[in-house]
Design a protein that fits this description.
149 residues; alpha+beta
């Protein structure tokens, strides 16, 4: 008399059987490199290249808040050791899931120390534009490395 086959985890077997036809559809060559480095990478809610580039660019500043799903990075006040009477705070918003020039916005606050008190001061438009450019350039470099690597 033969004993019935006992399956340790029937759910695991069922999931394996469902995935088996998909494995047969594979071309055997794997995923093309271009697919791995697509300009739309959304596993975290926003474009992964822009997200990583933002964190890399602002790595010298203390981070106050990060939200990868909403695409927002807020730094705490940063005082440059070369100009201790001035400090900056930056907010970066990633606005799109695609790697595009208009998908990132930088807002900055600047204060100067006058008589022991921090007073709001204007930020030059070129400062925020330069930060946006640095983030976009870094994101493109990351994508290029993923395609060629």
């Amino acid at each position: 008399m033969s004993r019935p086959l006992r399956i340790a985890n029937p759910l695991l077997l069922g999931a394996s059987l469902l995935l088996l036809p998909l494995a047969a559809c594979s071309t055997g060559g794997g995923v093309p490199k271009a697919d791995l480095a697509a300009s739309r990478v959304t596993t975290i809610g926003v474009n992964a290249y822009l997200w990583r580039a933002t964190l890399d660019t602002l790595s010298f500043m203390p981070l106050l808040q990060t939200d990868s799903n909403g695409g927002v990075v807020v730094t705490d006040w940063y005082v440059n050791p070369q100009s201790p009477a001035e400090r900056m705070k930056v907010t970066v918003s990633i606005l799109d899931q695609d790697l595009r020039a208009d998908a990132v916005r930088v807002a900055a606050l600047r204060q100067v120390n006058q008589g022991g008190q921090w007073i709001a001061a204007p930020v030059q438009a070129a400062t925020t534009q330069k930060l946006e450019d640095v983030i976009l350039t870094r994101a493109r470099d990351l994508r290029r490395a993923a395609v060629s690597g």
